[in-house]
Amino acid sequence: MTRSTRRSRTVALTATAVVIALGATACGGSSGAGGSGAPGKGGTLTVLDKADFDHLDPQRVYTTEGSSMDEEIVRTLTGWDETGSTPKLVGDLATDTGTPSKGATVWTFHLRHGVKYQDGAEVTAPDIKYGVERFFSSDINGGPPYAGQWLVGGSDYKGPYQGKELDSIGTPDKYTIVFHLNQPVADFNETTAMPGWAAVPKAHDTGSTYDTHVWSDGPYMIKSYTKNKELVLTRNKNWSQATDPIRQQNVDEMDVRFGQDESAIDQQIKADAGTAQTSIQQWPIAGSDLASLANDPSLKSRYYKIPAPGINYLAINTTRVKDLKVRQAIEYAIDKTTVRGAFGGSAYGDYATSMLSPGIGGYQKFNLYSANPAGNLAKAKALMKQAGNPKPAMSIAVENTPTQEHFADAVKTALERIGIHVNISPIDAANYFSTVDNTKNQYDLTWGDWIADWPNASTVLPTLFDGRLIKKNPQANQDLSYLNDPKVNALIDKAATMTDVKQRNAAYGRMDQQILKDAAVVPLTYMNFSDMSGSKVGGVIPDTILAEPSLVHVYVKH
């Protein structure tokens, strides 16, 4: 699996979800609105990134930084309006969020009239169809798996470059697009908010080099792009605010510079001199800087603490640690205060008691175990006594980084107190997920984390806890607790076919509670990511879908 120090989303070979192979780089903070009053017009925003984007080609992008940048260049069928207290799905290229029919196996979208590309041509349904068909070409790889999984005929289709079309995407007229799915997908219109559901005009498609030539229908277009050095975006003069419910076009240019160390970027933006005043970062604050920057009152107005739709957790292998009482004892024994300390303290995130995090559809607030995050030693010892006071030795898998090894020490210290001896197994961080996801390598305890592709439980619980997938994906098993509970599996099947969002969310809430009743995992923290901007940057919206500082309303103060 690919790794990045920030949330590079890696494709899981499963029906509905994707892991973010997030290393132990801490993240966190306190949200700054970046100034009030009317946004200023003009000026240049500088974006400081430690590395270039894996991709900007909308059908290939699968990192949060790349996806966030693409929001400036391309528009998608649906999108997220994040100006309110919670993200709201809205039509973007489409006039609304789509119409499901035939039990959510057919989805129809009607397009806005008058949306223009950078050359003034109008965006049409065949352009979106062509864009989505690009997902299937072996030259255009790296993007999310949903089109291939869900569109009828997707498993055999090889993309548009041999002149073939995918019949399950219909365009009855130039403003209508219809998708035929091989299964009911109640939240398909949330998938279509991802960058790959963007229009690509066939005449301007440069195939595998499209990353540096993305044709814009958003507020900004590529002026110049030197890989690993600099990307400059300038205004798309044919973009119209009247057709775009999500974005604004306030600055004249965005100058994205690559290649500085994370800590150097932190210090530059903190110092707030020269161009740093009109700069922002997209990778999170370095773990070593987090606590000091998070607690610096002078940075408060330009520090963004963005809750990620994700969870940091400890999986308990239910096939190796078979006694429920022992697993429950582990739930009570873990001291989440020392665990969180290893990841950077309170700035890293709030203590977790469920696998779904606040802000994800299906989240319910509940706590089946210790009310005190430091644990309940007496209760843990009592459960071990009921289990016959075993003295087991258990292995714990973690990444071979200082942060993760401190985390493993915290777990070891807590469990030794109840008679469980812990052997720490550090695994090379670059190969961590490919190692623990291989069913040949089973540990008693495994560190994991997960970020949803869109804020719904359907991109979290089915992948992490459907025990039927273990055999299907022996080298890419995301069910690190090896849970195969018929009650959970039945709820997964039931939720998948529910088209009523409230009913479906209630089913996911019950599923979350059942998983915790099984004591299959110890939820540790609901993760945050922290970023900073200079003092003259305004209009930054904390994007809780991507856990990025959204630039859709950004402006520079004069």
Describe the fold and architecture.
The protein has 558 residues and is an alpha+beta fold. The protein has helices at residues 64-73, 125-134, 146-150, 188-191, 262-271, 287-294, 324-333, 336-342, 377-386, 402-416, 432-436, 461-465, 469-472, 486-496, 501-517; strands at residues 9-11, 18-20, 44-49, 78-81, 88-91, 99-101, 106-110, 169-173, 176-180, 220-226, 230-235, 253-258, 279-281, 303-316, 349-351, 393-399, 421-427, 445-451, 521-532, 537-538, 541-543, 548-550, 555-556. The strands form seven sheets. It has a six-stranded mixed sheet with strand order 15-19-14-18-16-17. Strands 10-11-12-3-13 form a five-stranded mixed sheet, covered by helices on one side. A four-stranded antiparallel sheet has the order 6-7-9-8, covered by helices on one side. Helix 7 (324-333) packs antiparallel against helix 9 and helix 14 packs antiparallel against helix 15. The longest helix has 17 residues, at 501-517. The chain starts with 8 loop residues before the first strand and ends with a strand. Residues 1-36 have low confidence and may be disordered. Residues 88-467 form the Solute-binding protein family domain. It comes from Streptomyces koelreuteriae. Residues 1-26 form the signal peptide. Pfam families: SBP_bac_5. This is ABC transporter substrate-binding protein.
